[in-house]
Amino acid sequence: xxxxxxxxxxxxxxxxxxxxxxxxxxxxxxxxxxxxxxxxxxxxxxxxxxxxxxxxxxxxxxxxxxxxxxxxxxxxxxxxxxxxxxxxxxxxxxxxxxxxxxxxxxxxxxxxxxxxxxxxxxxxxxxxxxxxxxxxxxxxxxxxxxxxxxxxxxxxxxxxxxxxxxxxxxxxxxxxxxxxxxxxxxxxxxxxxxxxxxxxxxxxxxxxxxxxxxxxxxxxxxxxxxxxxxxxxxxxxxxxxxxxxxxxxxxxxxxxxxxxxxxxxxxxxxxxxxxxxxxxxxxxxxxxxxxxxxxxxxxxxxxxxxxxxxxxxxxxxxxxxxxxxxxxxxxxxxxxxxxxxxxxxxxxxxxxxxxxxxxxxxxxxxxxxxxxxxxxxxxxxxxxxxxxxxxxxxxxxxxxxxxxxxx
Length: 407
Hints:
Elements lengths: L2 H6 L16 E6 L2 H14 L8 H10 L6 E10 L5 E12 L2 E6 L11 E2 L7 H14 L5 E7 L2 E2 L2 E2 L9 E11 L7 H5 L2 H15 L4 E5 L3 H22 L8 H13 L6 E8 L2 E11 L2 E9 L9 H15 L4 E6 L3 H6 L2 E11 L2 H23 L1 H23 L1
Parallel strand pairs: 4-6, 13-14
Antiparallel strand pairs: 1-2, 2-3, 3-4, 3-5, 6-15, 7-8, 9-14, 9-15, 10-11, 11-12, 12-13
Helix pairs in contact: 3-8, 7-8, 7-12, 11-12
């Protein structure tokens, strides 16, 4: 432990936190990525980390997405107080808003799962998780509110300490995925019902009648650039037509995904796969490969003229087979409710969130947030027609904004 680390350790955090277990923890606060890099790379190499907390992923987030948000980086490092061994890293940020400050995870909308990096085999009791969280809050700078979403209960078979906190509530998001085992050539037959296999066959034949079909994995920089450009064009066109917000309308998000896609060629997690008919791309997928899993992160499809072939659905099916060929044993559809996920065999799992006030102002902010959420739920339940009109109006405004940006 170097002098800088010692200076950052909280004296309060050095005291035992979980006397019942005999374990004591100490907390260090790093305000830049370099200070935490050694522990980060060690935990990533030896411990339990989601694809969305990899060092290269978060480094790209901080490079492209954090600057616009006026964010202060806050990485809490949890160590064994006796040995100094790094046990966990909690990468967070403080957002400085007008009149208030919010502690969030360092995710900026591009992390489907939130969890600390953990040492191999580490599990905490609920009391230990609460004690660690209390100690982390004690070393963070002043803020009004903590907001963390998309928290899975487990990470690679181990309890997520964030999910163990008593203040968690149900997230608006759910996730889904499925184990993939056995021979790749018969994977779909094993996991899909006979009716789904007939649908896959029918839509595949429709696609084949329109040209030679190829499943493509981007394995060179030129291929990545080509496929990423296609994905971007397809998504922006589709989301603009639907009147839905897409993060890829922001140049810094485009730069983030392009960089991480290229880094996937040299050890990064990102992979680009696509479905091509003749010389036309009909579907593309940006995924992450990590910890024996393929995580579907971005999916795009061609225009409506291909709709009866369901190219996105067929691409996912082929990506599952490819993932199994690579020796992966889990296919993660990630966040979002789409019918094709359950159709293929995906199992849904709830996610959790944390909204914790740290001041009187934070209590008021939490009340506003919960009021808006409850108001939306009330409107959907009691006045669905009005809710639909308001949503259609918002979508029309987004379509108009998208056309203005293109002109």
